[in-house]
UniProtKB/TrEMBL annotation:
PANTHER family: AMIDOHYDROLASE 2 FAMILY PROTEIN, NODULIN 6. The lineage of its organism: Bacteria, Bacillati, Actinomycetota, Actinomycetes, Propionibacteriales. This is Nodulin. It comes from the Bacteria. GO terms for molecular function: hydrolase activity.
């Protein structure tokens, strides 16, 4: 059997490889260097230590690091992980980032700044490591509320939040909520009343009278308040769905549970973007087909499924209209994840689309057009032109 790529594969690989992507949901890069153990911890969504006798480097994502990132640090593909970490440590952190981020081929990064920002470089510093690219902010709703929690009483919490949100969204590209982590999608879909908000705020703030307690909003009424005020801004609203760290209950993160809320949001005209979705990418595809304001990506799943990611990408293109699927990496921390999101997406899309072209089901021109929609054009339409 010939191992030569088909003409369609070669043409698609060239076109998709040349695409300048929009990473519509990503985080910043690490501010400090990491050693072997730290890198292993950062290549999993779990916050627990690995089981005895196992290694975090025996995983799809870690094998992908050794395959695709090692050459950029001067090593052969598949170099042992110890050699890889040594080569990484021999370079300044910002140089590692310049090599890996630069190779991703991303021209617009929409960065969620709401999670552990103290461990990451600022947006300005990130921008300095990706010269020529645009860097914009996605504002996390829960983080905004938590930032003003102790600035007054329960009666004024909603108004404090609205003032802080108006300030935080100046120039922002969009918003994000992690209600999937904090509660799940099985929430009352209606907008809470001011009385409900004040009562919920009194319970939450009472727990924060202990100064050692770090503010973390998880009251379902307050989370609903955040969602509805997010909708009111008119900015694109991202919702984490599906797979994540052990902090969430995956059974309650199926986006189908959002259907009643999505019906209520639809008249507002605000777009809702379901992030990552695995293993619910088919359910998300149904919602994207059913509702004009719903979009999806499979970003986080692509990195963590590695060489198996073409299957996930193919499933995301089953029911969803092609104008409703976006690219993201959801990379947080090591710039290896920023690069791998792009590399694995390009390779996976090339494999999937080539298969359909070779079967005579698609033309090369249509395949290139769909890849361009997913890789950049859909995000440019949803988020508008570059801001700030």
């Amino acid at each position: 059997m010939s191992t030569e790529p088909s003409g369609a594969t070669a043409a698609l690989a060239e076109a998709i490889g040349a695409l300048r992507l929009v990473d519509h949901h990503v985080h910043s890069a690490l501010a400090a260097p990491v050693g072997l153990a730290e890198l292993g911890d950062l290549l999993t969504e779990s916050d627990r230590p690995a089981a005895a006798g196992t290694s975090p480097f025996d995983s799809q994502v870690a094998f992908a690091v050794r395959r695709h990132c090692a050459p950029l640090l001067g090593l052969d593909p598949h170099a042992p992980i110890g050699d890889y970490v040594a080569a990484r440590a021999a370079l300044p952190t910002d140089e590692v980032d310049r090599r890996l981020l630069g190779a991703a081929g991303v021209e617009r990064w929409l960065i969620d700044t709401g999670f552990r920002g103290d461990a990451l470089v600022s947006l300005d510093d990130f921008g300095a490591r990706v010269p020529g690219a645009s860097v914009e902010e996605i504002v996390r709703l829960e983080t905004v509320l938590e930032s003003v929690a102790r600035d007054g009483d329960a009666a004024g919490l909603e108004e404090r939040f609205l003032t802080a949100l108006a300030s935080a969204t100046t120039g922002a590209a969009g918003l994000k909520s992690v209600i999937a982590y904090r509660h799940g999608f099985d929430f009352d879909p209606t907008r809470p009343t001011p009385e409900e908000v004040r009562e919920a705020a009194s319970h939450w703030l009472a727990a924060l009278e202990d100064e050692t307690v770090v503010p973390r909003v998880d009251h379902p009424v307050l989370l609903r308040m955040l969602l509805w005020h997010g909708v009111d801004t008119g900015l694109p609203l991202q919702l984490h769905a599906g797979f994540g760290d052990p902090d969430l209950d995956l059974r309650r993160c199926d986006p189908l549970l959002l259907a009643d809320w999505l019906r209520l949001v639809e008249p507002s005209g605000s777009d809702v973007l379901l992030l990552h979705c695995y293993p619910f990418q088919r359910q998300a595809g149904f919602l994207a087909q059913a509702f004009p304001h719903v979009y999806l990506d499979v970003g986080l799943a692509v990195n963590y499924t590695g060489a198996a990611s073409p299957t996930v990408l193919a499933e995301s293109l089953e029911l969803a209209p092609f104008g409703k699927v976006l690219y993201s990496s959801d990379a947080w921390g090591p710039s290896e994840l920023h690069l791998l999101g792009a590399v694995l997406w390009r390779r996976g899309m090339t494999e999937v689309l080539s298969r359909w072209v070779d079967a005579g089901e698609w033309s090369v021109a249509d395949a290139v057009r769909v890849a361009t929609l997913v890789g950049r054009d859909n995000a440019e339409r949803v988020y508008g032109g570059r801001r700030g």
